Amino acid sequence: MNRVSISDFIDKIGDGIHGTPAYSENGTYYFINGNNLKNGHIVVGPDTLMIEDDEYEKIKRPLDDNTILISINGTIGNTAFYRGEKIALGKSACYLNVKYSENKYYLRYVLSTKEFLKYALQVAHGSTIKNLAPSQIAEYSFFAPDAISRDKISSLLKMLDDKIDLNNRICFELENMAKTLYDYWFLQFDFPNADGRPYRTSGGEMVWNEQLKREIPKGWTVGKIGRLGSIVSGGTPTTTCVDYYCDNGFAWITPNDLSDNDEKMFVSHGERDITQAGIDNSSAVLMPKHSVLLSTRAPIGYLAISNNEVCTNQGFKSIIPNAGYQEYYIYYLLKRNIPAISRQGAGTTFQEVSKETLSDFRLLLPPKPIANAFASTVSSLCENRCILEKENRELTKLRDWLLPMLMNGQARIVGG
Length: 416
Fold this sequence. Notes:
Elements: E1 2-5, E2 10-15, E3 29-32, E4 37-38, E5 41-42, E6 50-51, H1 53-59, E7 67-73, E8 75-81, E9 87-89, E10 93-98, H2 104-111, H3 114-123, H4 134-139, E11 141-144, H5 147-186, E12 206-209, E13 214-217, E14 221-224, E15 230-233, E16 245-246, E17 250-253, E18 266-267, E19 272-274, H6 276-280, E20 292-296, E21 300-306, E22 310-312, E23 317-320, H7 327-342, H8 355-360, E24 362-365, H9 368-407
Parallel strand pairs: 3-9, 17-22, 18-21
Antiparallel strand pairs: 1-11, 2-10, 3-6, 4-5, 7-8, 7-10, 12-13, 14-24, 15-23, 16-19, 17-19, 20-21
């Protein structure tokens, strides 16, 4: 293995505009920063701002098919490949144009190693918000094998990443199917009637509801979230007591464990587990499998279903479905109402929804047989998603175990 530097692999490196462009609701280019880079992909959402063509021409960067993007401000080290998306870069996104004679996937795995991230945090400047300069990335040196070995390493790791991406895409489609069905049943009121036909479209009786100031299906009521099950707050064992934390104990979930919540419906464990002593000496509550976890503080709105017994920190208000409503119905009901729930948050330092506020939150509730018929209908979608998410956790563990060993020469690929 020979010592090389990032600069040996690239033709150009730079960052985005250090300023604010002229945004436009009619724009054709997304203006992205480091927080839009995730797991090898550029991710845009409804809050991603846009710019028009003339503004893009002023601030465009020379991106090409061999460009890697990396976040360099605040959160450092998120990476993505540029795939021809119509984007412009802000100052927290850095671009590296890899030489076409080099393997861009190998360089991305270099940027994903703990060694690079440790180096980046050491050389980054700024006390509150860390900033990494493009020149500092180019200067990073490391030991690398020959080109043939680099290609083999990249091929193996990419195979795992491609399978993870495929599973995520399937999960995304399963989620869209379930959400569409929820809207069809509970927003359009076309749930199956007694004859299996769409209720409202088939002339099902609608009645005026004075509280909601609109018509709702006959037999439906305005109820509170507290009717869905027992609402449970979480707690944090004293962090200075090592006897309260372990690697293989009771699952303990914090909002950070659901930070990639768009790709997860289920949760089994967080970054740390806690012991029985940790539960006994804190306000954490061990909840059964199928509990619905909702973060109600820093931030509000992360949502997941527990895949085993879990407890949470105080950033959650969870629902144990013990009142006759099934967890899949509760999950999608909450998901549809998260924007409205979030608006109930109070606090000066950060917004929080209290247990009482969540319990008293009013929403439209169908009769339990209809709610549970929906849950049964989407159960196969959710169970398939659960299998794929579990597979991705195992693939991610394998990739993260192989990555440092392959990159530092502790393991090598024979043949191929």
